[in-house]
Amino acid sequence: MKDIHQFLCSPADSTHRHGPHDRIVMSSRVRLARNLRDHAFPGWAKKPERVKVLETVLPAVIAMPEMSDSFAEAMDNLTALDKQLLVERHLISREHAAKNVGCGLVVNRAETFSVMINEEDHLRMQALRPGFQTREAWQAVDKLDSALEKKLNFAFDNELGYLTACPTNLGTGIRVSAMLHLPGLVLAEQINPIIQSVNKLGLAVRGLYGEGTEALGNVFQVSNQMTLGESETVIVERLEKVLSQIIEHEENARQTLMEKKPKVVFNHIGRAYGILANAHSISSKETMNLLSLLRLGVDMELFPGTQRSLVDELFLITQPAHLQKQVSDKLSAEERDLIRADMVRERLKNVNRPVVKPAGGAAN
Amino acid sequence: MQCCVCKEKPATVHLTQIVGEKMQKLDLCEDCAKAKGINDPTSFAMADLMLGLGASQELDPSAGAVEVKCVRCGFSQADFKKSGRLGCPECYRTFAEGLAGLLKTMHKGTRHIGKAPEALRATRDTVDRLKSLQKKLAKAIGEEDYETAAAVRDEIKTMSGAVPAKAR
Which residues of B touch A201 (CB under 8 A)? Predict the structure, then answer.
């Protein structure tokens, strides 16, 4: 059995991927839900049928040129830790991590494509891109889907479009989403009205790991909800418009904070640095929330010479599964908190305490 | 006004969400509103809520009626109520009637617009075109515009005879 941790590129490399607007948009993704015409949906199918679907779909996906260098495995061959690692990399959903026999995964080394087999639908294929690249992600997954439909018989109805297990995904089966880092809006206490107005446009705002999760580290996922009655392009374009507006609001919030309440900003970032650089025991949640402030500090040029990727790498390697993969999977939560604190202190050894800038000195 | 979930207590929470040009309204009692998590507007999306509601309303078998089951996979309305998911692609035909209302509240429209598998695209375009021509014909007849009606009728005739050739 291949080891997913060895297959995927190191957290250091993965956080050096750059894309447009990546100081606010951490990543973009587009997923398509597809099902085989002649089989029950995974939630209703009995085990033998799920296995059969997996045996049909897996080889077809592996044969795609996009997946020439890929990791393909049945979910029952992965350990709980492997699955958690994949969740932390946003390559599979938390729902899929709970799956076993008859479910599978294909992910390419560049982490630009991931196909979940027998999650809620027979296929959940997604294209991932760093930064604000929703359109590029759509084009990429569209191409993969067009190639796959030549090998697999997708369930499609002239009236209803692609048929999905849940009626909420019916039609295009598309979910366009972006992961946004919005510490400025959170600090300025403007995040709730923004979430509300985004909701009113029929878009969903979720936490770091999707449905039902909290916005750890001030990271929010924005995605479309409706999938039937408008084309993929229209959906992508609407989300792009809304995302551009959120980016603008976040930039404005940061600038206003620096102009009007610089002490509040320096206080938050200084305290975050103080704890991270000096703690000897720290939970994953606290780490994420403080790293978010450190990241904001880097964006605002309060840490000259420090790259954002240092923070992003810490954000990834301090999460439970990543940490256990590096050290040992036999650690208790308390032991992890100690090791996490050691790791963070070590990495921040060469990062000087934040400088204080005169008011109005916003960064780009 | 009664709560539209429990249909027992008076509705005191009234919600209106405008999606596109459609307005969706909900009237709930305080308990049901709390149960649905509406006291926290930040995490609330009408579509999620409507799914649960629709599931109990639209697909609920009326008392005494024979339970409908999907002939292909054996999935029943009760199963949908439980999981909010369907059993197989065929279920969309089996439960078409109950789903129609649900889809209307959930989505922008009830008809798919967008990508289709290439093999089906040509026929799909022809069917679309025929449908819109038929509508045009009915409208022309209704308006007693017989000149247009005749032209449209001829177009339908040629199209019905033609092999679907045009792909998008």
Answer: 19
Q: Sign of dihedral through CA atoms A329, A106, A205, A302?
A: positive
Structure tokens that stand for A49 in this block: 């049928």
The residue written with tokens 């994949």 in the block is A86
Å between B144 CA and nearest CA of chain A = 30
Neighbours of B120 (CB within 10 A): 15
The ipTM, to two decimals, is 0.86
pLDDT, mean over chain A: 93
Helix, strand and coil content of chain B, in percent to the nearest 5, comes to 50, 10, 40
Adjacent-strand bridge partners of B42: none
Question: Residues B80, B84, B86, CA angle at the centre, nearest 5°?
Answer: 60
* Interface size, chain A vs chain B, as Cβ–Cβ contacts under 8 Å: 134
- Whether B63 and B83 have beta carbons less than 8 Å apart is answered as no
Q: Which token pair is A285?
A: 């949640």
- Among A145, A162, A228, select the one facing B108 at the smallest CB separation: A228
Taking the model in full, what pTM does it have? 0.81
- pLDDT value, residue B162: 55
With an 8 Å Cβ cutoff, are B87 and A41 in contact? yes
Please indicate whether, in this complex, the C-beta atoms of B107 and A229 are within 8 angstroms of each other. yes
In chain B, the residue whose alpha carbon lies closest to the alpha carbon of A226 is B107
CA distance B5 to B9: 9
Closest CA to A27 of A118, A154, A127: A127
Q: What is the CA radius of gyration of chain A?
A: 21
- Other C-beta atoms lying within 10 Å of the C-beta of residue A179: 20
Mutation for B interface: A194, A220, A226, A232, most B CBs within 10 A: A226
User: Which of the four pLDDT bands, split at 50, 70 and 90, describes residue B12?
Assistant: confident
